[in-house]
Amino acid sequence: RILIKGNLFEDVNGAMWGGDGRLFQMLDGAADVTIDHNTAFQSGTVVQAAGVPDLGFVYTNNLTPNNQYGVAGDGTAGNPLLTLSTYFPGALFSKNILMGGSILSYPPGNFFPASWSAVGFVDFAGGNYRLAGASPYKSAGTDGQDVGADIDALQAATAGAIGA
Q: In angstroms, rounded to a whole number, what is the distance separating the alpha carbons of residues 22 and 50?
């Protein structure tokens, strides 16, 4: 089992660092992977899949840009619903913000603001990625918490770390 939870991923930029700027890549049957309550800014796909299906996949309460393909797989790029059914059968994919994505491309119960300003960050330009009190995604997660990473908990956990 793998749990990826409570992270802030900044500057996952393929053009800057080389590569495709993919946030997560799932290959050849990884089982029981949960990705929950993360905030990310990547230049490529949110989740890229290939190989045999990945069973027990849970992707909830995450906040990312959709970019060109969002959730994509070999032979299914451009069709997130087909990618999910092909590579992640039975997946739980809910209460995620996919900025710039389409409601028609994903399972019900996700969010698709057209811009970062529509998300309602405290100070996006200043790097404060907490959701403001007026954000429509405040307390909108599957667990009643804010969608995305808990920035206060993240900062408390990394206080005093080098570069923090």
A: 13
* Whole-prediction pTM: 0.95
Q: Which of 39, 68, 44, 71 is nearest to 135 (CA)?
A: 39
Lowest mean pLDDT among 38-42, 67-71, 93-97, 155-159: 155-159
Rg, the chain, Cα only: 15
* Calpha distance 97→109 (Å, rounded): 10
Half-sphere exposure of 25 (CA within 13 A, CB side): 10
Nearest to 23 by CA among 57, 49, 46: 46
Farthest CA pair distance, the chain:
45
Structural domain boundaries in the chain: 2-157
Give the separation between CA 5 and CA 13, rounded to whole angstroms.
21
Complete DSSP assignment for 102-119? -GGGS-SS-B--SSHHHH
The type of residue at 146 is D
Q: Using CA atoms, how far apart are residues 38 and 58, in angstroms rounded to an integer? A: 13
pLDDT-based confidence at residue 128 (cuts at 50, 70, 90): very high
pLDDT digits (tens, 9 = 90+) for 54-86: 999 999 999 999 999 999 999 999 999 999 999
